[in-house]
Design goal:
This protein is of the alpha+beta class. It has 6 helices and 9 strands; from the N terminus they run αβααβββββαβββαα. Helices cover 15% and strands 21% of the residues. β8 and β9 form a beta hairpin. It starts with a helix and ends with a helix. The N terminus is likely disordered.
Length: 296
């Protein structure tokens, strides 16, 4: 098991340890789930559509990493595996030199400043690859992406507004996102992220909130405030959602790159849990930073 996953999982366990096991959200039957001859959900049935004919991406989704449900896809971008966005590339990600050094340092620290363990908003790709589920709530003018992990919330505007130029709006941990339909594919463009400053990565005494900024994956691959992300969401069938993520950050990488994540629908009526990360949070104490964390 990867060290980053051990730490992240420990943070989740500790944060929820006070709740009794009987307090899990009860499953509630979902209407409209197609059934096969055996009466079980048919996840290969056609994807549902909204009243305006668009694919309906609504639902609670969870990462489906390996093996691929519909076989290999050699002509597609590589899958993110083990919390590492560069796992599917022969030579890894195309880092700028400073970004390569920072990634090496973050990896060696085994997730010490991963925003997940610090109860901070995660990187856009981190939400896609976390073991906790996320929910998509789709309306014609706005799509909400709600992650169980750290209660992450993204708003995707569908009202034909333009993506604001870099620096023209307040930087967000989750970025500023606009969406449009390209046939049956939802294309989401995001920028104005709260990223890491490449000129200050080696400074001493920086707070954890700064060190936790700009984590693309759980390995610690960084991004800066120059980041632009393009996501392509495609509901292959009732049960599968493919997400392609193109990362374009000229300050951290020598060229753009694209990776892919596969999600599977939770069709058994499972609901997401309320996850208040700071409740009974023990990660700072366990890493010797409790008093410093409380002072901020």
């Amino acid at each position: 098991m990867k060290p980053w996953f051990i730490l992240a999982a420990l943070a989740v366990i500790v944060a929820t340890a006070s709740a009794p096991l009987s307090a899990q959200w009860p499953a509630y039957p979902i209407r409209g789930v197609p059934k096969g001859p055996d009466g079980k959900p048919d996840l290969t049935a056609p994807a549902p559509r909204t009243a305006d004919g668009k694919p309906d991406l609504s639902g609670i989704w969870t990462r489906y990493e390996d093996p691929e449900p519909n076989g290999s896809a050699s002509n597609r971008p590589p899958l993110v595996k083990g919390g590492n966005a560069g796992a599917g590339f022969k030579d890894g990600l195309p880092f700028q030199s400073w970004a390569a050094e920072l990634t090496k340092k973050r990896t060696a620290q085994s997730g010490l400043n991963d925003p997940d363990g610090l109860c901070l908003p995660q990187g856009v790709l981190q939400y896609h690859i976390d073991p906790q589920p996320f929910e998509i709530l789709q309306t014609p003018r706005k799509i909400l992406y709600v992650s169980e992990s750290n209660y992450g919330l993204r708003t995707i505007y569908m009202d034909r507004r333009s993506l604001p130029r870099l620096g023209s709006v307040q930087q967000y941990w989750n970025g500023y996102s606009i969406g449009r339909w390209d046939g049956d594919t939802l294309v989401v463009e995001s920028n104005n992220f709260h990223g890491v400053d490449p000129d200050n990565v080696g400074a001493v005494g920086l707070p954890d909130t700064y060190l936790a900024a700009g984590w693309l994956d759980h390995r610690g691959s960084p991004y800066t405030e120059a980041l632009k992300v393009t996501e392509r969401f495609r509901r292959v069938n009732f049960g599968q959602l493919d997400i392609e993520v193109t990362v374009d950050d000229p300050k951290a990488y020598t060229k753009p790159f694209t990776v892919r994540v596969v999600q599977r629908i939770l069709a058994d009526g499972t609901e997401m849990m309320e996850f208040i990360c700071h409740e009974n949070q023990m990660f700072l104490k366990m890493t010797g930073r409790e008093s410093k964390g409380a002072a901020r």
